[in-house]
Design a protein that fits this description.
The chain has 329 residues and is α/β, with parallel strands linked by helices. The chain contains 11 helices and 14 strands. Strands 3-2-1-4-5-6 form a 6-stranded parallel β-sheet. Strand 1, helix 1 and strand 2 form a beta-alpha-beta unit. Helix 5 crosses helix 11. The longest helix has 23 residues. The protein is globular. The protein starts with 5 loop residues before the first strand and ends with a helix. The structure holds nicotinamide-adenine-dinucleotide (NAD) and (2S)-2-hydroxybutanedioic acid. The site of nicotinamide-adenine-dinucleotide has 28 residues, from helix 1. InterPro entries: L-lactate/malate_DH, Lactate/malate_DH_C, Lactate/malate_DH_N, Lactate_DH/Glyco_Ohase_4_C, Malate_DH_AS, Malate_DH_type2, NAD(P)-bd_dom_sf. Keywords: NAD, Oxidoreductase, Tricarboxylic acid cycle. It catalyses: (S)-malate + NAD(+) = oxaloacetate + NADH + H(+). It is an enzyme of class 1 (oxidoreductase). Its EC number is 1.1.1.37.
Length: 329
C-alpha cells in the first residue's frame, strides 16, 4: 500500500542539531520504516546556502522514504501543510550565558512561527520545540496559534529523560532497557527534577534499589540537570546528536505510543495536574497512544519530590510572566 507522505518541517535546518536530525527523519526513524516524508527546511536567509548543501547530501543518500525537500526562509511556506514541526532554530546558549538571557532573544522567533503554524499547518499538526528556552518558546508559539489545539505544542525534555536513564543505568549496573517509568518534571533547565521514586529497574523500585538519598540529591539530580552545561563546557557547543536523537524519540513516541507499563517525559501544557499551574508548558510523565498523550495520574509525590517540582514550576511561571511582560504571549 502506498502511504501519503507526511510533511515534516524543521526550523534551523542548517544548524548542528538540524544536521544530526534530517538524515534520521529521512531514513524513517521519526515516523517509522514505512512512512514516506516530505521535508521542509526553514532557515533564516544566512542559513539558506548551508541548508541547500544539506539537501544535496540528503539527495545523495537516495533514501527510499524521502519524497521531496523544500528550502525556504518564509515561515508561511515552511509550515504549509505541515503535519509535524520541529522548531529547532533558535539562538543557542553559549559559554557563560544563562538560559534566562535567551528569553527575549528567542521570543521574536517563536511568535511569528506560531502564527505561521496557525495559518498554514495541517489540521493534525504536532509541534515539538527544541530551541531554548524550549518550554517557554513553546508557550510563545502556542499563544500565537489560537486555532491550533493547545496540546499540540510540546517542548523537549526527552534528552533529560534519556540522560537520567543513562546515569541510573551506570550507577546500578542495570541495562538501559530495564529502566522504566522515569520522570522529568518541570523546565528543561538546571531546575528540572529527574524523579526515580516511581521508576523501576527490572521491575524493582529504582529509589529502593539505589537506596542512597545523598547520591540522589548531590550527584544524580545535578548531573542530569546540568548535563547540557557540561556538554557545552566540554564541546564548546551545545549537545547536537543527542538532542537530535531525543527529538526523534519524542515524536516517535508521541505518534507510535509508549510501551505497556512504561511512560515517557514530555513538556506539555499543564492541565493543573500535580499542582502545576494550568497553561504553563511543564514536563510530566505521560503515556501516548494513537497520536495522543495523557498525563500519568495518581502518583504519590513525596516531600523530596514536591519541593523540587515546585522549584522548577516556579521558574516556569517566572518565565511566563517575563514573556507576558514583553508582550510575547
Ligand atoms: P545552531 O546555532 O547550530 O543552529 C541554529 C540554526 O537555527 C542556525 O542554522 C540558524 O541560522 C537557525 N535559525 C535561527 N533563527 C531562525 C529562525 N527564525 N528560523 C529558522 N531558522 C533559524 O544551534 P543548534 O546547536 O542546532 O541548537 C538549536 C537550539 O536547540 C538551541 O536553542 C539549543 O540551545 C537548543 N537545544 C535544546 C535542547 C533540548 O534538550 N531541548 C538540547 C540541545 C540544544
Ligand atoms: C542541553 O540540554 O544540552 C541544551 O539544552 C543545553 C543548552 O542550554 O543549549
Amino acid at each position: 500500500m502506498t502511504r501519503t507522505p507526511v510533511n515534516v518541517t524543521v526550523t534551523g535546518a542548517a544548524g548542528q542539531i538540524g544536521y544530526a536530525l534530517l538524515f534520521r527523519i529521512a531514513s524513517g526513524h521519526l515516523l517509522g520504516p514505512d512512512v514516506p516524508v516530505n521535508l521542509r527546511l526553514l532557515e533564516i536567509p544566512q542559513g539558506l546556502k548551508a541548508a541547500e548543501g544539506t539537501a544535496m547530501e540528503l539527495d545523495d543518500c537516495a533514501f527510499p522514504l524521502l519524497r521531496n525537500i523544500e528550502i525556504t526562509d518564509d515561515a508561511n511556506v515552511g509550515f504549509a501543510g505541515a503535519n509535524v514541526a520541529l522548531l529547532v532554530g533558535a539562538r543557542p546558549r553559549t559559554k557563560g550565558m544563562e538560559r534566562g538571557d535567551l528569553l527575549s532573544a528567542n521570543g521574536g522567533i517563536f511568535k511569528p512561527q506560531g502564527k505561521a503554524i496557525n495559518d498554514n499547518a495541517a489540521d493534525d499538526i504536532k509541534v515539538l520545540v527544541v530551541g531554548n528556552p524550549a518550554n517557554t518558546n513553546a508557550l510563545i508559539a502556542q499563544a500565537a496559534a489560537p486555532d491550533v489545539p493547545a496540546e499540540r505544542f510540546t517542548a523537549m525534555t526527552r534528552l533529560d529523560h534519556n540522560r537520567a536513564i543513562s546515569q541510573l543505568a551506570t550507577r546500578t549496573g542495570a541495562a538501559v532497557s530495564d529502566i522504566k517509568r522515569l520522570t522529568i518534571w518541570g523546565n528543561h533547565s538546571a531546575t528540572q527534577y529527574p524523579d526515580i521514586f516511581h521508576a523501576e529497574i527490572a521491575g524493582k523500585n529504582a529509589a529502593e534499589v539505589v537506596n542512597d538519598e545523598a547520591w540522589l540529591a548531590d550527584t544524580f539530580i545535578p548531573t542530569v540537570a546540568k548535563r547540557g552545561a557540561a556538554i557545552i563546557e566540554a564541546r564548546g557547543a551545545s549537545s547536537a546528536a543527542s538532542a537530535a536523537n531525543a527529538a526523534i524519540d519524542h515524536v516517535h513516541t508521541w505518534v507510535n505510543g509508549t510501551a505497556d507499563g512504561d511512560w515517557t517525559s514530555m513538556g506539555i501544557p499543564s492541565d493543573g495536574s500535580y499542582g502545576v499551574p494550568e497553561g504553563i508548558i511543564s514536563s510530566f510523565p505521560v503515556t501516548t497512544k494513537d497520536g495522543k498523550y495523557e498525563i500519568v495520574q495518581g502518583l504519590d509525590i513525596n516531600e523530596f519530590s514536591r519541593a523540587r517540582i515546585d522549584a522548577s514550576v516556579k521558574e516556569l511561571t517566572e518565565e511566563r510572566d517575563a514573556v507576558r511582560e514583553l508582550g510575547l504571549i
